[in-house]
Amino acid sequence: MKRSWLGLAVLALVLATLACGKPPQAEMDAAKAAMDDAQASAEKWASSEWQAAQSSMSQAQAEVEAQNQKWFKNYDKAKDMLAQAKADAEKAKAAAATNKETAKNEATAAIADATAAMESAKTALASAPKGKDTKADLALFQQDLDGMATTLAEAQTAMQSEDYTTAKDKANSVKEKATSISDQIAQASAKKAGVRK
Amino acid sequence: MTPGGSRLSRRGRRALFFLALLFLSLTQSACATPPLVELSRVRSDIERAQTDGASRYAPEEVRQAWDMLRAAQREVTLQSARFEFRRDYRESISLLQRARFFAVQARRLTQIRRETSRRDAQQELAKLEDSLERSREIKRFLTPRDPAIHRLLVGAGIDQEVARKNLKASDFPRALETAKSGNARVREAEQRLLSSMVRFTSHPDLAAWRKCVEEAIRRSRSQAGAAIVVDKLRRRMTLYRAGKPTQTYTVDLGLGGMERKLRSGDDATPEGLYKIEEVRGPGQTRYHRAFLLDYPNATDRRRFEQARREGQVPRGADPGGLIEIHGEGGRDKDWTKGCVALTNREMDQLASMVRVGTTVAIVGYNPQDQENPW
């Protein structure tokens, strides 16, 4: 009688051990969902973080497979590794969001600066000293500003398609040209004022 | 020696042999250590390739290198979980070798492709700089006020600036892409300019221009005096004496460039056969010296009246006047309100050779001049 109780206890222990040894499906699903969620943005905006997340996930999956092949399974390490993979995926996603936001803010600021520089140039052009000698230059400046307005519109289109680098490059170039026009007009005005004295 | 003793000895040898085999396999398994150093080395190789720019220039090789490395890591984890005597890392090592191959390949391709990209970007940018400069020059001569062409050329100019910056920052693919965009704009502008140029070979006024030039030369010959021919397309003035060309000058025209004057305020230079009505010296004009022409003549007035009847001129407009050949020129751009401008020195030279009544033919294009206008 005593022996049969002992046998039952051992059997219960074995069964309990086997029950504890189930693959951590919930953790695997959660890690995979985090990876899927991060992929699109992280691949483009945080490639090194994305690589790290992929490696973590791969290692965790390998650990799960390794435990699956064992008689006495222990998924504790796999669970930790899956948690790490999930955290890495979330980190990659957050880094992507930050990097994208930074690029977007820089492009937005560049467009705002370019728009302001264009407005200044337009104002300067409107109040520029007009005469036969300056008419050609002023007409050319006006045409340049018209052309730059087209480029600025292209920069805004690039913003909408999330091509922030192109948007920023174009806007910066427009700003430089518009500032140059304002400077030239200011110099011409100063020269003219000097002559009047 | 008994027969049984001999049999035992054979059994003993056999047992010894199996023991040796077991020992060998166990020691071999014990020696099969995971290739962790190699794993870390290959990882560094891939990361170095990425630092060199492989993610951009050889993305497929980088991807394959990472895939192989992950497969190797997975294999190492799997083998490490096995009983020690059953571990076998040969597959891991083979995967690592392939990963290293792709990493090395990625670095090599990156060097080649980066160099090709740099060269392509430089060539495309050089082409843009050249074609943009040429188109700007042609535009300046032909259609200085065409807004569509100007917009295209301003856009191309900005592309040129951006491509230069990208090239400086070693962002060759972007530099190439931007320079290509600039060249596409220049090509479109060139198409428009070409259609303007074609106008000159089949221009309705071509016969009239030829007649004007011939008449000016004939008068110069018959009167043994001076005559002036202004070729607007070439921005060139030729002085004839006794029917022979003796001197040429580069001129600045009205803001309208090649446009033909029709009315006051259009800032265009007229076309036709004129005479100098008045010669003004220093102090009599703000442009050093000036030869006032008899614009508008009868032809100009007829043309203006017809345009007015057709509603092509604003109400209250007139054909304009005060068209001169004057000084303060030599600015290498069109800036006058329709006059023809030379440098003051050239005006001083001309002043001794012309007089009131000297014939001045202003034409869009002188078909007798064989020299290429560009």
List the helices and strands and how they pair.
The complex is a heterodimer of chains A (197) and B (374).
Chain A: H1 2-20, H2 25-45, H3 47-68, H4 76-126, H5 132-160, H6 164-196
Helix pairs in contact in A: 2-3, 2-4, 3-4, 4-5, 4-6, 5-6
Chain B: H1 3-31, H2 36-51, H3 54-57, H4 59-80, H5 90-142, H6 147-168, H7 172-201, H8 206-223, E1 226-231, E2 236-241, E3 244-250, E4 272-280, E5 290-293, H9 298-309, E6 324-326, E7 340-341, H10 344-351, E8 359-363
Parallel strand pairs in B: 1-8, 6-7
Antiparallel strand pairs in B: 1-2, 2-3, 4-5, 4-8, 5-6
Helix pairs in contact in B: 2-4, 2-5, 4-5, 5-6, 5-7, 6-7
Description:
The complex is a heterodimer of chains A (197) and B (374). By secondary structure, chain A is an all-alpha fold. Chain A has helices at residues 2-20, 25-45, 47-68, 76-126, 132-160, 164-196. In chain A, α2 packs parallel to α4 (76-126) and α4 (76-126) runs antiparallel to α5. The mean pLDDT of chain A is 87. With 374 residues, chain B is an alpha+beta fold. Chain B is 57% helix and 11% strand. Chain B contains ten helices and eight strands. Residues 1-5 of chain B have low confidence and may be disordered.
Offer a quick outline of the entry:
Chain A has 197 residues and is mainly α. Chain A is 89% helix and 0% strand.
Keywords:
heterodimer; A: 197 residues; mainly alpha; 6 helices; B: 374 residues; alpha+beta; rod-shaped; disordered N terminus
| Pair of chains with the largest interface and how many residues each contributes | A-B, 36 and 38 residues
Helix content of chain B: 55-70%
Overall geometry of chain B? rod-shaped
Low-pLDDT regions of chain A: none
Q: By helix and strand content of chain B, what is the structural category? A: alpha+beta
The termini of chain B sit apart by: 118 Å
* Rounded average pLDDT of chain B: 88
Query: How would a crystallographer describe the biggest sheet of chain A?
Result: none
Largest sheet of chain B: 8 strands, mixed
% residues in beta strands of chain B: 5-15%
Mean pLDDT of chain A: 87
| SSE succession of chain A | HHHHHH
Counting helices, strands and paired strands, the structural category of chain A is mainly alpha
Task: Report the total helices of chain A.
Answer: 6
